[in-house]
Amino acid sequence: MSGWTRKDLLGLEELSAEEIRLILDTTRAFKGVGQRSLKKVPALRGKTLINFFVEPSTRTRTSFELAAMRLSADVVNISVGASSLQKGETLKDTALNLQALQADIIVLRHSSAGASRFLSERLEASIINAGDGAHEHPTQGLLDTFTILEKRGKIAGLKVAIVGDILFSRVARSNIQALVKLGAEVTLVGPTTLVPRVFEKLGVRVAHKLDDVLETADVINLLRIQHERQRKEYFPGLGEYVSLFGLTKARAARLKPDCLIMHPGPINRGVEIDSDVADGARSVILEQVTNGLAVRMAVLYLCAGGAGLPS
Amino acid sequence: MNEKSKTLLVMDADAIRKAIRRIAHEIVERNSDISRLVVAGIPTRGVEVARRLVDHIEEIEGVRPDLGVVDVSMHRDDLSIRGRLTAVVPTELPVDLDGRPLVLVDDVFFTGRSCRAALDAVSSFGRPSQIQYAVLVDRGHRELPIRADYVGKNLPTTRSEKIRVRFGNLDNVPDSVSVVKTEEA
Fold first, then answer.
1. Distance in Å, alpha carbon of A22 to nearest chain B alpha carbon
2. Which numeric CATH code is attached to A138-289?
3. Which of A287, A288, B19, B177 lies 20 to 30 Å from B99, alpha-carbon distance?
4. Which of B70, B73, B88, B124 best tests the A interface by mutation, with the highest count of A CBs <10 A?
5. Distance between CA atoms of B104 and B119, rounded to whole angstroms?
6. What parts of chain A have a pLDDT lower than 70?
7. CATH 3.40.50.1370 region(s) of chain A?
């Protein structure tokens, strides 16, 4: 039987194609809420959401915060500097304290893969994964998929190129899960050090030249080079990276006229993408941000409802 | 324990058509300016009743009222006790709702909670001059002080019975309203 029955969103790997479609359909309805004069619905009235970000984030945290507010939930933000983790408390103990404060939903960002699953197995509160290490960032994968679906009307059969720092990218992993399940042809593009062939096991293709996919791609999703995580040995230098994998004006000119240009942000202008291309007509980078809010409303709504099921 | 269910047909396609036709006449009688009227259905089958009402009103008056959809799932007060959720259907209402009469439409009128949620949803879009409520079937068991302005059929039921509404164009079976009784055997 169809429908949503989960209290947590830990990753897209465990979701069926049907569950992903249900979230995307629900997102469409919540996007409409943002277009009303009164941008607020009472669905989560009386619920408490805690944004628990053990790794820094501005856009994801703000997006979850606004999403919760538009659903009439009460929101508290805890960031790494202010938390007792600094004083030596374990993640589990901090989370149990949040639950003792009667938090209904905990949105967790953590540098360790599996951190949100760890909490979901120990807490009654709904746990939403807002990024766990290099593992998954499910709401980003969903918002990217929603943006493609909204622009192109379908996912199946589309050729999607994900370019750049795949090895450490939870965004890439969540995108791959959603897109492959919905029938897209995904190609990962980057230097061999950042895009090893082992990714082919996820049902995607691997390419080491951006020029090979430019003319056929329906969607090109550029991932940020993570300076802060990147060890120098993965590629010789930014200059060389740009010359091989940067979406320059010259390369953008070879894309299909209706190719969507995406980026999860924050963008490094002049590195993954030229300024003019980022601001151009085919870029949907800011629409991704708007859609992220709607996706997060849909996810919070569904998980709050799923929490009511007898287990 | 075996569960047996018994299905009793209470309205066939012709009875449904006549009931909707009569409600259309009543709406025309009560609302002098049909061109300003908005008829909005509550998903899923309320939307279909609303669509048919608008067709009949156009036939009767030669003017087609605006058709809308009002999602109530975001506005219900029982999210955490509902369990399995299905996708939410987007609300579609004309942007200029202020000062216009609105008829909310549902298939089955039961506790009144959907109607309350619909009233709440509408208020975040605008301020209609008045809101009327039309239902295909009123099965009783109200939990709120809400009544319908237009009723296709009054159908006294027990709480354990279910009302099943089917429309040919949605369900691939002939239009029907049935009472489903579940008996423990």
1. 5
2. 3.40.50.1370
3. B19
4. B88
5. 9
6. 1, 82-84, 227-232, 307-311
7. 17-137+292-306, 138-289
